[in-house]
Write a structure and sequence with these properties.
The complex is a heterodimer of chains A (341) and B (228). Chain A is built from twelve helices and 14 strands. With 341 residues, chain A is of the alpha/beta class. Chain A has two domains: 243 residues, Rossmann fold; 89 residues, Alpha-Beta Plaits (2-Layer Sandwich). The longest helix of chain A has 18 residues. Chain B is mostly helical. Helices cover 79% and strands 0% of the residues of chain B. Classes of the chains: A alpha/beta (341), B mainly alpha (228). Chain A: This is Methionine ABC transporter ATP-binding protein.
């Protein structure tokens, strides 16, 4: 559906040339929810804007739905853009228009007759769950409702691709979840390809099938979400994975524990998919002469299965502990000794 | 003597109501026609000023500099001097230097750049994200101008035209120096020069009423149309 090859963008600034996006190759399949995660300044915003040519690439090619975006004439580009919906962090609605008029806007641009526009707007209002709010102005809506209008507007011309530019970053956690649910719903109903950029791993975890991690204009790691969660290779990825698997205070609490006398070994176990439901701890206690104390645990759901992490404190004879760790490794559970080796 | 003066002001005995009415009509005529053209030219100039600026839809340094120079020069020339400067131009265009029509070219040339700046400021206030979103939807430049830029800036455009209209009424008073007539002219010639303060008082009050009414109408529509 989307292919990027050797895509690069350099900006000329007062401080010289800045490479925002550096030689990116990427393929996104039809019907997929693809996430790009990175901190601000990683180049993800520039990357997503090159998909519909809001930013013109310095070199490289962008192909969306079989169209080579960077060779299109102005006119053809406008037509191609009508096939690509986009939603924004700050919604970017026209405040002078009502909800219904905002949703109708892309239809007007395309030249859809007014009776057809009306029925389509009604459908879309229902689809995004804004029944009865058609005559309201954006200023009368909450953030979540505004983003729903943004989504309805982006879907008006039945696009093949939806681009989400930090679409939930301005929303509170609960509203974020409801918007993400809506995106999953749309993805399933319309088999729509969704590309989203975010700095929140929570968003990736919740809705993406595949993820790419960006740093300094490059993709440092990519793959199915569960794989990346299970075995994050790059430092950057590990940091992002931590965002969702460990409560923020974990690190601090554990560090405090390490200073205590006779704390023994502290292990971090990572379960993926079906493993998460296994009775591993019971097995360990039965098979080895060790004492296990559970310090902290968390289970999260991704689009392809569950993912969990567990911090345990193991005490006992040194060789028993080593045997126990070997046993865990054999169970295809990731284990990391974070203290006591 | 002093009591007599106060009495004559209060009794309005020097006021010739036919002249007063005529002057009022001239002021209204000059203001309305000038306002109409100022609105048209000012909007066009303001749009061009905005659109040709760096990073905008029709980015063009040369056109932008020319318009900016015109706007800045004509906005800086004091109106009373502008009228005199434009005398040859006006007589060629209108054919006469007498009557309210002769004041129109100077009024429009003086006020249009003033309004153009306000249009430009109003357009700059529009969230860039909204323009970006419109581009992402495949809007053409003309669709962006007529469906986004203008509708989104309507309240600011209206409050701008209100301020301009009030400034124009002030300008028409000065237009008296070239014999254009109007309330300012009447207040100066019949009121001040002939020592009839009651005429000056009435002329002032009529101008005040115009200004208040205009401001009220302007505020009403600005608030009504602002859905932010």
């Amino acid at each position: 559906m989307i292919t990027l090859s050797k895509l690069a963008k350099t900006f000329n600034t007062r401080d010289g040339k800045v490479t925002a996006v550096d030689q990116i190759d990427l393929t996104i399949e039809k019907g997929e929810i693809f996430g790009v995660i990175g901190y601000s300044g990683a180049g993800k915003s520039t990357l997503i804007r090159m998909l519909n040519m809001l930013e013109v690439p310095t070199t490289g090619e962008v192909s969306v739905a079989g169209k080579n975006m960077n060779t299109l004439s102005q006119r053809k580009l406008r037509e191609a853009r009508q096939e690509i919906g986009m939603i924004f962090q700050h919604f970017n609605l026209l405040w002078s228009r009502t909800v219904a008029e905002n949703i109708s806007f892309p239809l007007e641009i395309k030249g859809v007759p007014s009776t057809e526009r009306k029925t389509r707007v009604e459908e879309l209002i229902k689809l995004v769950g804004l029944n009865g709010r058609g005559a309201s102005y954006p200023s009368q809506l909450s953030g979540g409702q505004k983003q729903r209008v943004g989504i309805a507007r982006a879907l008006a011309n039945n696009p093949q691709v939806l681009l989400c530019d930090e679409a939930t970053s301005a929303l509170d956690p609960k509203t974020t979840d409801s918007i993400l649910e809506l995106l999953i719903d749309i993805n399933k109903k319309l088999n729509l390809t969704i590309v989203l950029i975010t700095h929140e791993m929570h968003v990736i975890r919740k809705i993406c099938h595949r993820v790419a991690v960006m740093e300094n204009g490059r993709i440092v790691e990519q793959g199915p979400v569960l794989d990346v969660f299970r075995r994050p290779k790059e430092h950057m990825t590990k940091e992002f994975v931590k965002q969702v698997t460990e409560p923020e205070e974990t690190e601090e609490a554990l560090k405090h524990l390490f200073t205590e006398e006779g704390i023994g070994h502290v292990l971090q176990l990572t379960f993926v998919g079906g493993d998460a439901k296994r009775a591993l701890i019971t097995d360990l206690i039965r098979k080895f002469e060790v004492t296990i104390n559970i310090l902290q645990g968390k289970l999260s759901q991704t689009q392809d299965g569950s993912y969990g992490s567990l911090f345990i404190n193991v005490t006992g004879d040194e060789h028993h502990i080593i045997e126990a760790i070997d046993y865990i490794r054999k169970q295809e559970v990731e284990v990391e000794v974070i203290h006591g080796e | 003597m002093n009591n007599l003066l106060v009495g004559s002001i209060l009794l309005l005995e020097n006021v010739n109501w036919v002249n007063m009415w005529e002057a009022t009509a001239e002021t209204v005529y000059m203001s309305l026609i000038a306002l109409l053209f100022t609105f048209i030219f000012g909007t066009i100039l303001g749009l061009l000023l905005f659109l040709t600026a760096r990073g905008q839809l029709w980015q063009n340094k040369i056109v932008h500099s020319i318009i900016a120079a015109y706007v800045n020069i004509f906005r800086s020339i004091p109106f009373i001097i502008l009228i005199v400067l434009l005398v040859p131009f006006t007589s060629a265009l209108v054919g006469t230097m007498l009557g309210p029509s002769a004041a129109l070219p100077a009024l429009i040339i003086g006020a249009a750049p003033f309004y153009a700046r306000m249009v430009e400021i109003a357009l700059r206030e529009i969230d860039k994200g909204v323009i970006e979103a419109s581009k992402a939807m495949g809007a053409s430049n003309s669709q962006i101008i007529f469906k986004v830029l203008i509708p989104e800036s309507v309240p600011a455009l209206i409050s701008g035209i209100t301020v301009t209209a009030i400034a124009l009424i002030g300008y028409t008073a000065m237009a008296g120096v070239i014999g254009a007539g109007g309330l300012g002219d009447l207040a100066y010639r019949d009121g001040f020069q002939r020592n009839n303060p009651d005429i000056t008082l009435i002329a002032t009050m009529i101008v005040l009423v115009f200004v208040f009414v205009l401001q009220f109408i302007g505020d009403y529509f600005t608030n009504k149309l602002d859905k932010r």
